[in-house]
Design brief:
Helices cover 48% and strands 11% of the residues. With 122 residues, the protein is mainly alpha-helical. It has one domain: 2-Layer Sandwich (Zincin-like), CATH 3.30.2010.
Length: 122
């Protein structure tokens, strides 16, 4: 799949996210990358062949301070190659991207896995 085609799938997947969750993306940049760098995987304690689909980079809302605002914009990285390798159909790819983005929004909000389960994103 070309980068442009994948970007279109990402946009469709984001539109599938319920508005009550999607509204939190207004202040978050989404960046599609081919795959996570070895440094990112190492920093997270993952083996080099780990299939990481996404990553939230920033300071969660629970950890923010009014006195020390974040230095960088909050970003959700979506990793195209691991997602494409994992998913067999376009529908599965859209669904997995949706789940990944919601999972990363949860990190931004400082929510835990229980919140995701309550929303039906296991």
């Amino acid at each position: 799949m070309t980068n442009r085609e994948f970007d279109q799938v990402v946009q469709r997947a984001i539109r599938r996210i319920p508005e009550e969750i999607r509204k939190h993306l207004k202040n978050i940049m989404i960046s599609v990358q081919d795959r996570p760098s070895p440094d990112i995987l190492d920093e997270m304690g993952y083996p080099p062949d780990e299939a990481l689909f996404g990553l939230y980079y920033g300071t969660s809302l629970l950890e923010r301070s009014l006195n020390e605002p974040p230095l960088y914009p909050d970003t959700i990285f979506i990793y195209q190659e691991p997602l494409e390798e994992f998913c067999e159909t376009l529908e599965e790819l859209e669904e997995e991207i949706e789940i990944t983005v919601v999972h990363e929004i949860a990190h931004y909000l400082g929510m835990d896995e229980d919140w995701l389960i309550e929303l039906g994103y296991e």
